[in-house]
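Suppose a colleague, Dr. K., hands you the sequence of a protein chain of 154 amino acids and asks what its three-dimensional shape might be. Before reaching for any lab equipment, you can write down a predicted structure in token form. Begin with the sequence itself:
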Amino acid sequence: MTIWPLGWGTRSRRMAARRGVTTVEFAIIGSALVTLTLAVLGAGLALWAMVGLQSSAAMAARCGAIAATGCTTAVQVQAYAVTQASAQILNGVIAAGDVTVISGATSCKGFSDPPRTFYTVSISSSYFNQGALAILAQPFNFTALKVSACYPMS
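The predicted structure, expressed as tokens, is then:
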């Protein structure tokens, strides 16, 4: 005759009642982790793009201010900004129409030095709100990335 330990039947019933609980817990935690991961990816993508666009605008403003070879007209400065953005971020991230060039501005982001004028380049890009990339940008709902840079003219 076999003698079973005390409470054996009760323990197996408790284990049977817990089946499926791990799946439910994973579903709850997993959805939160996926949302958090997409938010971090979206923030990283936006920050990476902003830094690249800011660098492109600064380089274009300097190129136009010192009138370097190939940067003597506004159209050439726009083309230079597009080339720099394509090299630093992604090809086609901005077009020439996304670049605004102002030569001889009297102030630069609120700073003014009366005898001095500034060469200002502004870039606006809505590239990251298109197609599959828009999914990563959704938590932030930005419509366009906008940057501007200026450089004093000699």
